[in-house]
Design goal:
This protein has three domains: 6-191, Class I glutamine amidotransferase (GATase) domain (Rossmann fold); 200-388, Rossmann fold, CATH 3.40.50.620; 402-502, GMP Synthetase, Chain A, domain 3. It contains 13 helices and 20 strands. It has helices at residues 17-26, 40-46, 84-92, 180-191, 200-215, 228-241, 259-270, 281-288, 294-314, 371-380, 385-388, 408-425, 480-493, and strands spanning 6-11, 30-35, 50-53, 79-82, 96-98, 104-112, 126-133, 136-139, 145-150, 153-160, 165-168, 220-223, 245-251, 274-279, 321-323, 361-363, 436-450, 453-466, 474-475, 497-502. The strands form four sheets. A nine-stranded mixed β-sheet has the order 2-1-3-4-11-10-9-6-7. A five-stranded parallel β-sheet has the order 14-13-12-15-16, with helices on both faces. It binds xanthosine-5'-monophosphate (XMP). Residues 298, 348, 392, 394-396, 436, 470, 507, 511-513 line the site of xanthosine-5'-monophosphate.
């Protein structure tokens, strides 16, 4: 079969499936993750140059173990099975897989016995690899040869060079297999004969094509939040379908200083997108009156968002599609009995629970990408650094940074303090190393002295953290002079604050936000 310049990864639910795609894209070959139950016929139509079978948490003997269409091996397209993928290949092609009593987990040393094997071309005869498996292949299917072994694994790698089917028991996609990238390069370039030509610009072209085909002359609605993901989706859809895109930006009154203005200027004025800003601050504030509990705040805000968004959507005329900035990490990694990961709707986009009269088909053009790839797409589409390098901001906004009751006056105190935290930290040359930084308004007053008189005013906590993914975080060691200018500016310039403290807690056991 003719092939196009891309590689398909069939996902059997490994935690690191996404890394396979990422490593291959880093080598400038487009790669897409598909559910493991994708049929051979569907693959034939899309003409990948190669197919990777990912790892997975199950055993091929397990009840409901995910499998793939056996005809995948007869497409004439090279296949690389990784871990579970190798065991499944052996199982489906009538070799033998043996259930292991113990798991082999961690670093292992592997010897490549067949130095002719293209997968290991140019690599050392002894390689460090990362193992994570219980079962292993003990009898090779007909036509296969063992290529490499480790102490616990007689077939750490296998090949059928005639049919171009390969299997590795270890994970080449993780950093603990130092030469794993070279193996994937050998697979993509030497075995699948791909060309290293893919870059973000080609992703954009590809995505625009797909969007145009799907949407036709229809209309698309997008809830724009000003965050990186929805901003990149807006820029991409605008490029693809221009005036058929309608963006709704709900101004919930819980945003940071000038945020609404920035979104209007960029997307409304500069891009010329059909942008509908809904000024809903008063409704949110009214519904939040007297609400103290953080989860209750989130519920009220989520529900109000849906109400406001749905009401606006109904005024826009017939709209068939709803776009979302779902990224790969938002897609649940677990495998359902029928195989393949299932999608969730990102909670902070808050469009999961739209009323029944609003029915849309979803468009999620970023669902294959990681955050840093999304940023690269944004840059390529001409979005400014203040959008693509923006720090994460919680959907409920400043509401979860005001401890206690939310009022217009307390919101303004926090907004002004927050502005000063951001302005001072952004003067640091390395400010992009700080994952998040913001102010929190505490529900206590402290005594101070101003001139000759005693004050009894608000306390602001400053939070700055370093993190890779928001799951864990360390408090950021801000230089004293930066802390000093933050504190001076807040106390001198923000009316109603007479004390500033710095939060020196890490996550866990604290969280990044205070609520
Ligand atoms: P925590 O406070 O749990 O936050 O350590 C981890 C990351 O998630 C963000 N965050 C939220 N994002 N809706 C969101 O969209 C929320 O309700 C929410 N709460 C926390 C937080 O800013 C940090 O980046």
């Amino acid at each position: 079969m003719d092939h196009k310049n891309w590689i398909a990864v069939l996902d059997f639910g490994s935690q690191v499936t996404q890394l396979i795609a990422r490593r291959i894209r880093e080598q400038k070959v487009y790669c897409e993750i598909l559910p493991c139950y994708t049929t051979a016929e569907a693959l034939r139509q899309r003409q990948p140059a190669g197919i990777v079978l990912s790892g997975g948490p199950q055993s091929v003997f397990g009840e409901n173990a995910p499998t793939c269409d056996p005809a995948v091996f007869a497409l004439g397209v090279p296949v690389l099975g990784i871990c579970y993928g190798m065991q499944l290949a052996a199982h489906l092609l009538e070799g033998a897989v043996t259930a292991g009593d113990t798991r082999e987990f961690g670093r292992a040393v592997m010897t490549v016995e067949n130095r002719e094997c293209t997968l290991f071309h140019g690599l050392d005869p002894t390689l460090q690899v990362w193992m994570s498996h219980g079962d292993k292949v003990t009898t090779l299917p007909a036509g296969f040869q063992g290529v490499a072994s480790s102490r616990d694994c007689p077939y750490a790698a296998m090949q059928d060079p005639v049919r171009n089917i390969y299997g590795v028991q270890f994970h080449p996609e993780v950093v603990h297999t130092p030469q794993g990238g070279d193996m994937l390069w050998n697979f993509a370039m030497q075995i699948c004969h791909c060309e290293p030509t893919w870059e973000m610009a080609s992703f954009i072209e590809h995505a625009i094509d797909a969007i145009q085909q799907k949407v036709g002359s229809g209309n698309v609605l997008l809830g724009l939040s000003g965050g990186v993901d929805s901003s990149v989706v807006a820029a991409l859809l605008h490029k693809a379908i221009g005036p058929q895109l309608h963006c709704v930006f709900v101004d919930n009154g819980l945003l940071r200083h000038e945020e609404v203005h920035d979104v209007e200027t960029l997307f409304g004025d500069a891009f010329g997108i059909d942008l509908h800003v809904v000024p809903a601050g008063p409704i949110f504030l009214e519904r939040l009156q007297g609400v103290i509990d953080p989860e209750e705040k989130r519920k009220v805000i989520g529900k109000t968002f849906i109400d406001v968004f749905a009401e606006k959507a109904r005024t826009l005329g017939p709209v068939e599609f709803l776009a979302q900035g779902t990224l790969y990490p938002d897609v649940i990694e677990s495998v359902s009995p029928t195989g393949g990961p299932s999608a969730t709707i990102k909670s902070h986009h808050n469009v999961g629970g739209l009323p029944a009269d609003l029915k849309f088909q979803l468009i999620e053009p970023l669902r294959e990408l990681f955050k840093d790839e999304v940023r690269a797409v944004g840059r390529e589409l001409g979005l400014p650094s203040y959008v693509v390098d923006r720090q994460p901001f919680p959907g409920p906004g400043l509401a979860v940074r005001i401890i206690g009751e939310i009022t217009a006056q307390r919101l303004e105190v926090l907004r002004q303090a927050d502005l000063r935290v951001r302005e001072e930290i952004m003067k640091m040359p390395n400010h992009l190393d700080v994952w998040q930084y913001f102010a929190v308004l505490l529900p206590i007053q402290s005594v101070g002295v101003m001139g000759d008189s005693r004050t009894y005013e608000n306390v602001i906590a400053v939070r700055a953290v370093q993190s890779l993914d928001g799951m864990t975080a360390d408090w950021f060691k801000l230089p004293y002079d930066v802390m000093d200018s933050i504190s001076n500016r807040i106390i001198n310039e923000v009316k109603g604050v007479n004390r500033v403290v710095y939060d020196i807690s890490s996550k866990p056991p604290s969280t990044i936000e205070w609520e």
